[in-house]
Amino acid sequence: MPIIEVDHVSKEYQLGAMQGLKQGLLKTAARLTGKSVAERPLFKALDDVGFSIEQGEVVGIIGHNGAGKSTLLKLLAGISKPTSGSIRVDGRVAPLIEVGAGFIPDFTGRENVYLNGAIMGMSKDYIARKFDEIVDFAEMAEFIDTPVKRYSSGMKVKLAFSVATSISSEILIIDEVLAVGDLAFQQKCIERMENLIKRDGRTVIIVGHNIRQLQRFCERIMLLDHGRISRDGNPSEVCGVFYDEAQRKNIARHVITEGAIEPQRSSGDITVNSIEILDDADIPVDRIGLHEPLKIRATFTCARKLERVEFNVGLHTSDFVHVISVGNALYDALPTLEPGTHQFTCRLSDVPLRPANYALRLLIANQYKQALWSAENIRQVQIAPGRYDITKLPGLGLVDVPAEWNFE
Amino acid sequence: MLQVAKNIYDYRELMATLAWKNIALRYKQAYLGILWAVIKPIMLMLIFTLVRSFVGIDSGNVPYPVLTFAALMLWVFFQEAASEGVTSVVGNTTLIRKIYFPREIFPLTSVLTKLVELGINFLIIMALMAWYGILPGAEALWVPLLIAYTILAALTIAFVGAALNVYYRDVGNALPVMLSLLMYASPVIYPLHLVQEKLVVQQAAGEWSNLLYQVYLLNPLAGLIDGFQNVMLRGLPPDFSAMLPGFVLVACLLPLSYLYFKRAEAYFADVI
User: Fold this and answer.
1) Interchain pair A79, B99: CB under 8 A
2) Spatial distance between the Cα atoms of A328 and A348, rounded to a whole number of angstroms
3) Is A103 within 8 Å of A138 (Cβ atoms)?
4) Within this chain, do residues A166 and A277 fall inside the same structural domain, yes or no?
5) A231 within 8 A of A51, measured Cβ to Cβ
6) Which domain holds residue A277?
7) Which of A106, A395, B19, B218 is exposed most, by the fewest CB atoms within 10 A?
8) What is the pLDDT of residues B30-65, one digit of tens each?
């Protein structure tokens, strides 16, 4: 028996602002007399969504802005009701939405802990028992009797997160709360979340944009696209689809106009006319296999004489993790370029990237390391499994380094 | 209605905490603190007493200041509970967007908050009664029931008003104005028996007099204030015939008001 069941749920919002009294009265009059009225346009935030979640599952929800993620969370938490369809939730839901939004600036930390706890549905006794633990976790013992208005924003979020995660409920709904505090505290938060999930066996639904973090927590991810569930299942598969979509959008922005690639930064000294990806036979490709060689060839025009020019090419993921970056400076191959059109070819003898979509980056700099031309997301490069069986790759990691195994 | 009682019981701790928040928040940075709760009725009492010295209002055998204070403390409680109840949902927008619990908690908490302030006013009236040498009789046992009835009357306005206020903020702005007008149609400055004498005994409005008197009594506060003065100051039981029209009105409207609130609450988070 699933703990959450969502059945053909749609949610519509009216677009536009509230109309004045006169408009409203006229429309009511028209409706009463049976005339047709120009209604405000409707926006479908969720469109016929259906899924079920079993006890103890940890489910992530991803999607572009406005895909309906927060709307779905609000429906699950009972804050808002669906326009059509039904939602069944068995058990108490603790929503960690806008953590700390209920803090009263004039109250001390202690008072706010009790208030916030009560709002989240904890009893006074329960909070009293957990109080020291909450304060310790937030590292706020020193300031607990200071009004919250004197807190820094980081202190507020730390305390709020600590209260919110002390709750005992069967279902946790989390909206983008893991990005709180400094790095050390974030680590602590992640550990705490993992404890809540793994040790207590809670059912958890997380919404977020930090896909890598979600991939780490969740055993199942749903991808929302314009109010519909477009994918639902294995995290790395669903996230892969999402990354590809994001990359397509980014690359589409770099339209090549009149034989020149539009740079993100440029000093005007260099224009890049074209960039190609080639295999070893010099045939243009946009996909190569794992551990196969790859050539990048670019044609560019210098407006004036440039000395000791540095070139960096690289591949990055769609969330801008630069997994490969190579430069000619390391090989002391810094050319001096006369005005006119030139070409360079850079050969990577072995691309060790896990099969997925990557994007190309190019940076050209002068001898003082000032950028002459640079752009990311220039074009998509797909790494295919090639001669390897992808199912034999371990689940984590971005780079596959040749390894030798010995067993004695 | 059973569901309401269950919700009140289930969420009693939350309501107590929210009420404590409301009170603490209002008086936190104020030097006089909670004393501000009694300043309004006391000031009004002083003004009315001053005015009475020019125009002359027959207060029967009870001293006028304590008679009008009794009326004022109940009236101010009703007025503030109703108008704060109406703005309570919009005033808690952040909570409405963040978490679900039955939304009637908000108007109920407003009433609860005002109940604490009413309690403080009870200390004042007891001091006044001691000053004038009035001893409350056994009839004073009616007080809790009268207060409960006042709460129901305030909630009748608060539920429907709070829901409407989410859609049209005009309601929250208009209500205090309307209520302060209603004060003059309630026996606050003058005692009820003056109205009764004018309309029922003297038939001042001709054949309409009796009907007009019943219309006057439709205001639940008319019978309530008189009843409260009876049990506290006159040592008499409440005048049930004076309370009946108002009570019927509240009994009819309160369920409707509550149902409207519950129907609207599903959309609070979307509209607010």
Assistant:
1) yes
2) 12
3) no
4) no
5) no
6) 265-388
7) A395
8) 777 777 778 888 888 899 888 888 887 887 888 899
Q: What number of other Cβ atoms are within 10 A of residue A154's Cβ? A: 12
**Helices B220-229 & B64-91, crossing angle to 10 degrees?**
140
* 3-class DSSP assignment, residue A382: strand
Q: Do B95 and A102 touch (CB under 8 A)?
A: yes
Q: Which of A101, A114, A115 is facing B98, going by the closest CB pair?
A: A101
**Among A32-46, A376-390, B138-152, B224-238, the least confident range:** A32-46
Please give, rounded to a whole number of angstroms, the shortest distance from the CA of B100 to a CA of chain A: 5
Residue in chain A lying closest to B25 (CA): A106
Give the model's confidence band at A123: pLDDT under 50 very low, under 70 low, under 90 confident, else very high. confident
DSSP line for A257-296: BTTBPPPSEE-SSEEEEEEEEE-TTS-B-SEEETT--EEE
What DSSP line would sit under A72-83, residue for residue? HHHHHTTSS--S
Mode of pairing for the β-strands spanning A220-225 and A228-233? antiparallel
How do the domains of chain B map onto residue ranges? 2-271
State residue A206's pLDDT score: 87
Task: Write the pLDDT tens digit of every residue in A295-309.
Answer: 999 999 999 999 999
CATH number at residue A295: 2.70.50.60
Beta A4-14 vs A84-89: how paired, if at all? antiparallel
pLDDT for the residue numbered B252? 95
Residues 87-146 of A with CB under 8 A from B: 93, 95, 97-98, 101-102, 104, 106-107, 111, 114-115, 118-121, 123-124
Give contacts of A106 with chain B, Cβ < 8 Å: 25, 28-29
At B23, the pLDDT band (50, 70, 90 cuts) reads: confident
> Do A77 and A126 belong to one domain?
yes
pLDDT, mean of residues A142-150: 88
A384 part of a folded domain = yes
Average pLDDT on A300-327 reads: 90
Shared domain check, A82 and A230 = yes
pLDDT > 60? residue A194 = yes
Least confident range of A25-39, A353-367, B90-104, B112-126: A25-39
Interface of A with B in 58-87 (CB under 8 A): 74, 77-81
Q: Residue A10: pLDDT above 60? A: yes
CATH number at residue A214: 3.40.50.300
Average pLDDT of the residues in B93-115: 88
A303 vs A301: CA distance, rounded Å: 6
What is residue B74's predicted lDDT score, i.e. its pLDDT?
94
Token pair 């008001």: residue: B257
Report percent pLDDT > 70 for chain A.
93
Same domain, A296 and A225: no
* A44 & A88 share domain: yes
Contact state of A101 with B94 under an 8 Å Cβ cutoff = yes
Asked if A81 and B267 come within 8 Å (Cβ–Cβ), the reply is yes
> How many domains would you assign to chain A?
2
Mutate to test the interface with A, among B7, B21, B165 (most CBs of A within 10 A): B21
- Give the gap in angstroms from C-alpha B269 to the nearest C-alpha of chain A: 6
Set of chain A residues whose Cβ sits within 8 Å of the Cβ of B96: 79
**Degrees, nearest 5: CA angle B30-B32-B37:** 95
